[in-house]
Amino acid sequence: MRCGRCFGIARFPRKGTRMKKNRFIALLLVLSLMFCMGTTALAADSTTATIPVTLTVDNQYRAVNVTVPASLPVYVINGTVITADNAKITNNSQTGSVKVTSVTVTDGAYKVGNYDNFSGSKTIALKINGCPTRGAGQLQIGDQFPVIKAGKSLDLTYFAKVSGDAPNAENVEAANVVFTISITD
User: Fold this and answer.
1) Considering the entire predicted model, what is its pTM?
2) Does a structural domain hold residue 177?
3) Looking at the structure, do residues 30 and 78 belong to the same domain, yes or no?
4) What is the largest CA-CA distance in the chain?
5) pLDDT by residue (tens digit) across 37-56?
């Protein structure tokens, strides 16, 4: 008995063994292609993604936290002008200093006059921390309004002159004082 090779007859393994092997390899290739394509091939019609919102806050400013007088009361009693002795500006901040950078006096029910050369009817003039009014407008301030450190106060010493024609009245807004306060450090 001779082998099949000698007669040119190819010998095949048992029937169906090679086909099964090829089918198995093809199945492995299909599965590996599916997994290589990523999960999008297996995803549904839509997907949900949750991403974080990253917030960065960098405040480069500080708020001015001060208390100023609600008013600067002036009383005229029998021709004598009396002002309050407890007026002050308080820096309520925990840290940082502030400074009065401007004081402006504007007309109210009375015209603002010149403190050093006082005249006129229905006129009021003020001198705040040594800075006199010269009429309505900004006072010339300097060292009379020093830096106010955190938690400290600046006393306001003020004097007033009121024209002699002032009628008896109560709580009249004779003038307005505007303090501009700025952070110094």
Assistant:
1) 0.67
2) yes
3) no
4) 153
5) 555 545 557 776 777 776 76
